[in-house]
Amino acid sequence: MKILGIGVDIIKNKRIKLLIKNKSFIKKIYSNNEIKFSKNIKNKVNYFAKRFVAKEALSKAFGTGFRNNLNFKDIEILNDELGKPYYFLSKKIKKIAYKKFGINNLNYFLSITDEKDYSIAFTILQKK
Structurally, how many domains does the chain consist of? Predict the structure, then answer.
């Protein structure tokens, strides 16, 4: 199996703490599901910070950054029943991946972590 893209990002959580006070920032960056699930989370700063870096990491793994009609809200990070984060693959994300790599079958690997001061995400895109 061939690795097609790798992305990593880090953010100082204090930066997100300031940004999420602005409701328009939250609505611009996060999906309705991400916002809905945040209501059950005690540490909202780290919750939003981890999702922010995961979105950045995927844009870097694509090798595009946020251009060519890719927006933060297009990338949605959810958690499975055990709490493992994953990318929800919308039609738009699948279309961007196909345009970039010319294939439909990709594995999307995501690892995110946080400490008091920082959140980090690492993404690998692999051909199935």
Answer: 1
